[in-house]
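QA checklist item 7 of 12: single-chain prediction sanity check.
[x] sequence parsed
[x] length recorded as 635
[x] structure emitted
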Amino acid sequence: MVEARTAKAWPAMALGMALLAALAIVAWPAHGEPVVDPGKAATKVAGGFAAQFPEGAAIYEKHCAACHDGGALRAPARIIIGNMTPAAIHASLVEGVMQMQGNALSDKQKIEVAQYLSGQVYADEAALPEPKFCAAEHRAFDVSRPPAFAGWGIDQQATHAVPVAQAGLGKADLPRLKVKWTFGFPGANRARSQPALGGGAIFVGSHNGQVYALDRETGCVRWVFKAGTEVRTGIVLSPWTKGDVRADPLVYFGDLRGNVYALHAFTGEPAWTIDADEHPAAVITAAPALYDGTLYVGVSSLEEASAAVPGYPCCTFRGSILALDAATGRQKWRKWMIDEPKPQAGGKFMGPAGMPVWAGLAVDPKRGHLLIATGGNYSGPATDHTDSIMALDLATGEIDWTFQAIAKDVWNVDCIMPDNDNCPENAGPDYNFGTGPVLARGKDGRDYVVDGQKEGSAYALDPDTGKLIWTRKIGRGSMIGGTHFGVAAVDGKLIVPISDAAPPMLKTDVPARPGVYALDIVTGEYLWQAPAPDPCEGRPLCLRGYSGAVTVTSELLFAGGDDGFVRIYDMADGKVLWEMDTVRDFDTVNDVPARGGAISGGAAPIVDSGQLIVSSGYGFASKLPGNALIVLEAE
């Protein structure tokens, strides 16, 4: 097993994604509308799980709170640590950079504090089965099978469209589509890293901080790399010439400690690792984009959640885009989204801050643009490029144009707390872009930049100027979508998934409209509408709708739902052709117990060479947990 170098002085098993607001503020009944419970939110954010794990709470208050609740430099706030697995917290105290502090505690005390912070019962990962490494006949990488996709967005333009011939699945195959094998991610309750495919392998990250190269035929493990903290980004695999026996491709990804990695794809050995941002809350959530020898990286953060911790000095993070030499990790340029924060309101808070880049990236080679989307401000004053789609010069990072969908969206998690000293005045609705832009072709032969927003609207822009061509209000919108993680485009159609799971921050007469919708890219008119089925009655944590990214061919739409179903739609009319409930236990090739859950986040179901690959389980924002990577084929 290959291990990562620790690039930051943080817990070695690292930061989990703390937030989003829905996780803190929403109590979901088994069926129907969510219920907002600010009192419960305050307990969760500020008090952890004291009633469930009182001994751990006492240990934390005595030994840990002074740094982690007090805004100490590089000490991640409790809300951030709280989304790690208990095994990850325990490991950081036993063998990570927190080992010195952990030496003052017995192992039982370390476990108690890990349970208190995570809200989960500790299970010793050492007791889990060892990885099942491949026998010789499945261990080698096949250089005759170069990468299936250019990156997370399938192609450079991030259309999430797979050619029909490459997909190898058509309507006639669907009745014979069956589970081929399932891999259970150990020590995990979510699966949100979209795999890369190449060399006869599936490359995928995990909640437990490990990145795997799995044999596509059997699911056995070719290699494992231990990053030490959750890898939620999609994996990007560099190209090689088919049959090149000297090929030495790299795999790229980021983690929730703000590190960016390059590994040798055929061995798992590190090529380079860089710290993308020194800010203690910096994370990498979007898959990098690889183009012409440069790796483009969006930098996001968890400081939006840290602001809810009493006494936290809000806020200092500023989003950025990094351009790195793909071979060495050397920085070519960095574009900050915000100037250096300064004291505001007589020193009461710092600002402006925020504007994370946590959505996917697209490349427009014809115009020399990197297309990105941005989040909101965490603290004021409001800046000009929040909640925006932007075109950056590929060579320099300079902004060529900006389309701002919503101005003055200044918000952080403290805004839903009873004692909300860090909440900005006139706080915004938190309707930033979590969905990356797409460069798509309309039936008129023209290019369009299209995207969807948490507010529930879809947009089409002129790729040369950023000028708005049309907008279509589809969903009601909310902090967790509206459209949340990904749209897709093919044959002049824009596919927009809608969640609408939580109550909107702003009053609106628009009803919730969970489902998937096809729009004409040229006009924005509906081509078809497919409201989401509702199998949720009696199923805890079940939500209608589609928050995750989707994949299309000219014939089929592959969509994973927050209800745990993966469905295949007819692209002609939006009719459901096939579905499978993943909320069940699976036998796994690695003997790790696995169960499916909500299919959400950036890990879209992907299709290639007759295989449908589904990451099932979200375990976040009150959605069904799970830890399954499911590979299906037509028998």
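[x] summary fact logged: Residues 5-47 have pLDDT under 50 and may be disordered.
[ ] second reviewer sign-off
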